[in-house]
Amino acid sequence: MLSSALAGRIALSIVAVVIAGTIAFALLNLKRGRVDPTEYAIGGRSFGTIFLWVLLAGEIYTAFTFLGAAGWVYLHGAAAYYIPAYGAIGYLVGYALLPRIRRLGAERGLVTAPDLLANYYRSPRLGVLAAILYVILALPYVTLQLSGLQIVLSSAGYGWLDGAIGAAVAFTAIALFTFTAGLRGTAWASLVKDGLVLAVVLFAGIALPIHFFGSLGGMFAQLQRTNAALLTLPTGDAPFGQVWFITTVLFTGIGFYMGPHSIAATFSARSDNTLRRNAMLLPLYSIVLIVIFFAGYAALLLVPGLHGHAADQSFLLVIARYYPPWVMGFVAGAGALAALVPSSALILASAAIVVRNIVRPAFPGRIDERHETLAMRVAVIAISAAALLAWWLAPETLGSLLLVYYSGITQFLPGVVGAAFGLQLRGIAVTLGLAAGVVTAALLTYVLAHLGFNPGFGGLIANLLVVALVEWLAPKTDGGPRDSSSPTPPRPTVSARRFSE
Amino acid sequence: MNSWRLRALRIAIALLPVLAFAVGTPLLNHVEPRIVGLPLNLAWVILWILLTPLCLLAIERLRNVKT
After folding, report:
1. Would you tell me which residues 25-44 of chain B have a C-beta closer than 8 angstroms to some C-beta of chain A?
2. Cα separation of B35 and A499, whole Å?
3. Residues of chain A where predicted confidence (pLDDT) is lower than 50
4. Which of A221, A141, A129 minimizes the C-alpha distance to A415?
5. Where are the domains of chain A?
6. Which CATH architecture has domain A4-360+369-396?
7. Which terminus of chain B, N or C, has fewer Cβ atoms within 10 Å?
8. Which residues contact A120 (CB under 8 A, 6 or more apart)?
9. φ and ψ at A368, to 5 degrees?
10. Which pLDDT belongs to residue A51?
11. A372-421 pLDDT, tens per residue?
């Protein structure tokens, strides 16, 4: 038996080689020369099927999924099946939605998600609100990846090295990489990450159960004897019960692509057909999640008794206990990449949003095309530093902000769908709806915790009601979305409006 | 087939996986009968992960049908 210091050194060296190798591979594949903002933020709208595959699926399945899905199965059993279920619904929505978003982006030169809303609804105010909300929602998501990274590195260190220091070092490396490489570099890194994650997941999910229980069937037979209640959902509106499952799957599924990095990835696509072909293939990616569930169930039987966040480490503990440090090195390397690469995409999308939708409107005429790439690079470093600092100083606050990530992100749905399908909504209606949706979702989450249904749904209903109400009250126009920020003509009375129709 | 019927058919096919995952899974909330050793509800989820690309393929084929 190796000492834990030696084991930790072996495993962490492999993790370091995996991360450094991935960064080097991605940098070697980049083109030399001047980088314009469209190339930097969305790969010059040139990505084909493989890059989109890794950006649209790989970036959504992060360290949170990698460790969290196993942890979910460990703690809540069948409730975790909501993850592949909403994914599949997300891909269906993506098939209809993403090609239309891409077309708008290419026709109108859009780069970020708030660009889409501000341009289509001709409302700079909506663009600024969307930008601020996106950054507030995305920052905790990045810091969540940092916590995931810390868990992975602590496990790989066997107690020899503090995971937090390693996480800070690795995160700094990836921030500098993002600064240099832009989205094209992130896509190359994503390719390596997905390959390694796939290999590790197949090992952990297939080899572990067969090694310890003879077969998958053997593992489930044992689970049925010892943890039968976990294998089905609690009935009715119990926590993580049937009602929760239905509402969460539908709600999270329709909001699947509303993240700022997902819209950026959509803009990076070469053609509509690339996006449609991807939507057809992506559901197969969910098989990876099923295999992670097997690993989580195996961990439940092998290292029982973990509670709360400790469950996220469950299958890493199995690896640490039963396998040599070099195996741990590759597993942790994959886990670290699963945290770092999606962070890179999210930081990049946020940086583009800060520059194009917050700084530029605030200082009109100051940042021209030539300086925009540089401004985005500076924003990448600033956002990375802010994420690191926030994670270090206030992890608790961030954890609770994260509760509203999905319910908040999905409030962009009415605006994005309206733009994609050419609905004649007013900018002011979408703006107020978005605000009402986010506020309602946050109130439901924090004030009335444990509803038995998904709180984001309440937010979306409030959102749609406000959009409908404003559309109904606001004066009719000849068509075309109106600019809510320009001086509005005097509102006709209700009867006048009726006659004018 | 005329175009609105075609569109309705495509939407109906798209709704199959949605209903199967969101409503089917919580209703088939049983372990028995186990399918090749897997609990029934998990086997159902895996089945629809495999069927969803086929549904999308059908929708894509219908998109290219001339009306």
Report:
1. 25-27, 29-31, 34, 36-39, 41-42
2. 65
3. 478-480, 482-501
4. A129
5. 4-360+369-396
6. Up-down Bundle (1.20)
7. C
8. A104, A108, A418, A419, A481
9. -90, 175
10. 87
11. 889 999 999 999 999 999 888 876 665 666 667 888 899 999 999 999 99
Q: Which two tokens stand for residue A20?
A: 């450094």
Instruction: Enumerate the residues of chain B whose CB falls inside 8 A of the CB of residue A293.
Output: 42
Cβ-based contacts of A272 with chain B (< 8 Å):
none
Nearest to B49 among A221, A242, A287 (CB): A287
Instruction: Please name the member of B26, B39, B49 whose beta carbon is closest to the beta carbon of A245.
Output: B26
Please give the C-alpha separations between residue A193 and each of A20, A197, A342, in angstroms, as whole numbers. 12, 6, 10
Rounded Cα–Cα distance for residues A340 and B47 (Å): 32
The residue ranges of every structural domain in chain B are: 3-63
What the block records as the tokens of A1 is: 């038996």
Dihedral sign for Cα atoms in the order A431, A434, A437, A442: negative
Mean pLDDT of the region B44-54 = 93
Nearest Cα to B15, choosing from A461, A251, A88, A273?
A: A88
d(CA A461, CA A440): 9
Closest residue to B53, CB basis, from A232, A253, A284: A284
Q: State the smallest CA–CA distance between residue B12 and chain A in angstroms.
A: 12
Q: Which amino acid appears at position A488 of this protein?
A: T
Size of interface A-B (CB pairs under 8 A): 106
A230: left (phi over 0), alpha (psi -120 to 50) or beta: alpha
- Decide if the complex's ipTM is over 0.90: yes
Residues of chain A positioned with their CB less than 8 A from the CB of B45: 81, 84-85, 290
Which residues, including other chains, have CB under 8 Å from residue A121's CB and lie 6 or more apart?
Answer: A415, A418, A419, A425, A426, A427, A430, A481, A484
Chain position carrying tokens 């868990």: A151
Residues 67-86 (A) with a CB less than 8 A from some CB of B: 78, 81, 84-86
In residues, how long is chain B? 67
Whose structure tokens read 């733009």? A419
Contact in structure between B37 and A256 (CB atoms under 8 Å): no
Beta-carbon contacts of residue A501 (< 8 Å; ≥ 6 apart): A476
Cα–Cα distance, A348 to A422 (Å, whole number): 28
Query: Three-class SS of residue A477?
Result: coil
List chain B residues with CB under 8 Å of A281: 53
Provide the residue type at A86 as one letter: Y
